[in-house]
Design brief:
Shape: globular
Largest sheet: 6 strands, mixed
GO molecular function: peptide-methionine (S)-S-oxide reductase activity
Structural class: alpha+beta
Catalytic activity: L-methionyl-[protein] + [thioredoxin]-disulfide + H2O = L-methionyl-(S)-S-oxide-[protein] + [thioredoxin]-dithiol; [thioredoxin]-disulfide + L-methionine + H2O = L-methionine (S)-S-oxide + [thioredoxin]-dithiol
Keywords: Oxidoreductase
Enzyme class: oxidoreductase
Distance between the termini: 20 Å
Number of strands: 10
EC number: 1.8.4.11
Order of helices and strands: EHEHEHEEEHEEEEH
Number of helices: 5
Helix content: 25-40%
């Protein structure tokens, strides 16, 4: 298994998408890219810690390449919105890729370039936490009640009911060969 970390707005929404992608073994919601150790959801939501709501994906690279994973990521959120996704506004909802090694950093650049071709050069997704060939951002798992949120509480949350189904439809339409059966 390999690991990828991406931030594309609300982690509930991004997690729901990737739990349906072939080759994905597990998805964990959490926080990355900030200045406060062990941040809480309330702290991150205030936008003062610098963290992004993100997901850490463990996947099988023989089934899903990192490049394909990033294409699904870029294609299932709006990478042209700066520090927001829909009604979620703030740096905690930014679009970002957090590469874990040189190869991931190179592939992140290529994925952003591909997405820019599809989005008229307006992609604002950043590559963060990678300097001197080392991933230098701490990962903090979100509180337990955020994990697998769509499978439980999310089904009763009006925000999730409005936002997640369109993302899942986009996944099924645009990435048919990447959806679990």
């Amino acid at each position: 298994m390999e690991t990828a970390i991406v931030a594309g707005g609300c982690f509930w929404c991004t997690e729901a998408v990737f739990r349906d992608v072939i080759g994905v073994d597990s998805v964990e919601s959490g926080y990355i890219g900030g200045t406060v150790a062990n941040p809480t959801y309330k702290q991150v939501c205030k936008g003062t810690t610098g963290h992004a709501e993100a997901i850490r994906v463990n996947y099988d690279p023989s089934v899903l390449s990192y490049g394909d994973l990033l294409d699904v990521f870029m294609g299932t959120h709006d990478p042209t919105q700066l520090n927001r996704q829909g009604n979620d506004v703030g740096t905690q909802y930014r679009s970002a890729i957090f590469p874990l090694d040189d190869a991931q950093a190179t592939e992140a650049e290529a994925a952003i370039a591909r997405s820019n071709e599809d989005n008229g050069g307006k992609v604002v997704t950043t590559i963060e936490g990678f300097a001197d060939g080392k991933q230098n951002e701490a990962w903090y798992p979100a509180e337990d009640y955020h994990q697998e949120y769509w499978d439980g509480e999310g089904q009763r949350n009006p925000y999730c009911l409005a936002v997640i189904p369109p993302k899942l439809m986009k996944l099924r339409k645009s990435f048919q060969n990447k959806v679990k059966g």
